[in-house]
Amino acid sequence: MVVVSVEIHVNGEQHRIEADLKTPLLYVLRNDLALNGPKYGCGLGECGACAILVDGRAVRSCTIPIAAVGKRHIVTLEGLARGDELHPVQRAFVEEAAAQCGYCLNGMIIATVALAARKPDANESDIRQALRHHLCRCGTHVEILAAVRRSLQNVRAEHLARAPDEEAGEQE
Ligand code: FES
Ligand code: FES
Prior knowledge:
Layout: E1 3-10, E2 13-20, H1 25-32, E3 51-54, E4 57-60, E5 73-75, H2 88-95, H3 105-118, H4 124-131, H5 141-171
Parallel strand pairs: 1-5
Antiparallel strand pairs: 1-2, 3-4, 3-5
Helix pairs in contact: 2-5, 3-4, 3-5
This protein binds FE2/S2 (inorganic) cluster (2 copies).
């Protein structure tokens, strides 16, 4: 065991962590930082329950050793909302009631946030590709796909609503 002291940047805050260098980032998020959005499913990078955003890309935190995180910016489910206002993707999952046990939802939402940022006009094929390695043991796939489609609509609507403000800001 080799204990390292590392600084990681999570949800806009810096944290110093002492841990064995092979400790999966998922364990640090859940056990050291009490961020329980990312879930432990398979521990093998196969189910998607532990997904987080690293520099905006959806990745599986169970397969990233803490020593490999470096200065990357990590966002977990807890970092998506703005105060009391849910992220438009979270709102879509609530609006579509897309959950049974809810265990897979962290991964589904994180994958959708990454997709919406990368390709807000994603088509059905893009959606299925983005979620193809996210497992839902409850069989909620139909509702989850509906929530992803609604997420993209919500994100596009939010961009449109903000556009006039942003243009005004640029002209000032
Ligand atoms: S727990 Fe990480 S992919 Fe399954
Ligand atoms: S809602 Fe239970 S695993 Fe997806």
